[in-house]
Amino acid sequence: MKKKTVTGILLFLGIFAFYLSFLLTSVSTTNKNIIGGADFSTFCFVFFNEKHGLYVILACLGCVMIAVSVVLRYLSARRK
Fold it and tell me: CB 3.0-4.6 Å disulfide test: which of 14, 56, 75, 78 passes with 66?
Protein backbone atom coordinates (compact mmCIF):
# COMPACT_ATOMS: atom_id res chain seq x y z
CA MET A 1 0.00 0.00 0.00
CA LYS A 2 1.07 3.52 -0.59
CA LYS A 3 2.07 5.58 2.42
CA LYS A 4 -0.57 8.18 1.54
CA THR A 5 -3.31 5.56 1.73
CA VAL A 6 -2.04 4.25 5.06
CA THR A 7 -1.89 7.73 6.57
CA GLY A 8 -5.39 8.48 5.28
CA ILE A 9 -6.80 5.34 6.85
CA LEU A 10 -4.94 6.04 10.09
CA LEU A 11 -6.26 9.61 10.14
CA PHE A 12 -9.82 8.43 9.56
CA LEU A 13 -9.60 5.79 12.29
CA GLY A 14 -8.11 8.32 14.70
CA ILE A 15 -10.87 10.85 14.13
CA PHE A 16 -13.48 8.10 14.36
CA ALA A 17 -12.09 6.79 17.67
CA PHE A 18 -11.85 10.31 19.11
CA TYR A 19 -15.43 11.23 18.28
CA LEU A 20 -16.74 7.79 19.23
CA SER A 21 -15.37 8.20 22.74
CA PHE A 22 -17.23 11.48 23.20
CA LEU A 23 -20.40 10.06 21.68
CA LEU A 24 -20.33 7.04 23.99
CA THR A 25 -19.62 9.31 26.96
CA SER A 26 -22.57 11.54 26.09
CA VAL A 27 -24.91 8.57 25.80
CA SER A 28 -23.67 7.12 29.07
CA THR A 29 -24.02 10.49 30.82
CA THR A 30 -27.63 10.92 29.75
CA ASN A 31 -28.46 7.50 31.19
CA LYS A 32 -27.39 8.57 34.70
CA ASN A 33 -30.14 9.45 37.16
CA ILE A 34 -28.79 12.49 38.94
CA ILE A 35 -30.90 14.93 40.91
CA GLY A 36 -30.55 18.35 39.30
CA GLY A 37 -29.49 16.95 35.94
CA ALA A 38 -26.24 15.85 34.41
CA ASP A 39 -23.85 18.71 33.69
CA PHE A 40 -20.18 19.03 32.70
CA SER A 41 -18.84 17.63 35.97
CA THR A 42 -20.90 14.48 35.45
CA PHE A 43 -19.63 14.27 31.87
CA CYS A 44 -16.02 14.49 33.10
CA PHE A 45 -16.64 11.90 35.80
CA VAL A 46 -18.14 9.46 33.29
CA PHE A 47 -15.42 10.19 30.72
CA PHE A 48 -12.58 9.40 33.10
CA ASN A 49 -14.12 6.71 35.32
CA GLU A 50 -16.85 4.79 33.49
CA LYS A 51 -15.88 1.26 32.43
CA HIS A 52 -12.41 1.64 33.97
CA GLY A 53 -11.43 4.60 31.78
CA LEU A 54 -12.39 3.07 28.44
CA TYR A 55 -13.61 6.37 27.01
CA VAL A 56 -10.47 8.32 27.89
CA ILE A 57 -8.27 5.51 26.57
CA LEU A 58 -10.22 5.51 23.30
CA ALA A 59 -9.84 9.29 23.00
CA CYS A 60 -6.09 9.09 23.69
CA LEU A 61 -5.71 6.30 21.15
CA GLY A 62 -7.51 8.45 18.59
CA CYS A 63 -5.21 11.39 19.31
CA VAL A 64 -2.13 9.19 18.94
CA MET A 65 -3.37 7.83 15.61
CA ILE A 66 -4.05 11.35 14.35
CA ALA A 67 -0.59 12.52 15.43
CA VAL A 68 1.15 9.53 13.83
CA SER A 69 -0.78 10.08 10.62
CA VAL A 70 0.18 13.75 10.46
CA VAL A 71 3.85 13.01 11.16
CA LEU A 72 4.00 10.23 8.55
CA ARG A 73 2.34 12.44 5.97
CA TYR A 74 4.73 15.28 6.77
CA LEU A 75 7.76 13.01 6.50
CA SER A 76 6.61 11.51 3.21
CA ALA A 77 5.98 14.97 1.74
CA ARG A 78 9.36 16.18 2.93
CA ARG A 79 11.22 13.34 1.20
CA LYS A 80 9.87 14.27 -2.25
Answer: 14
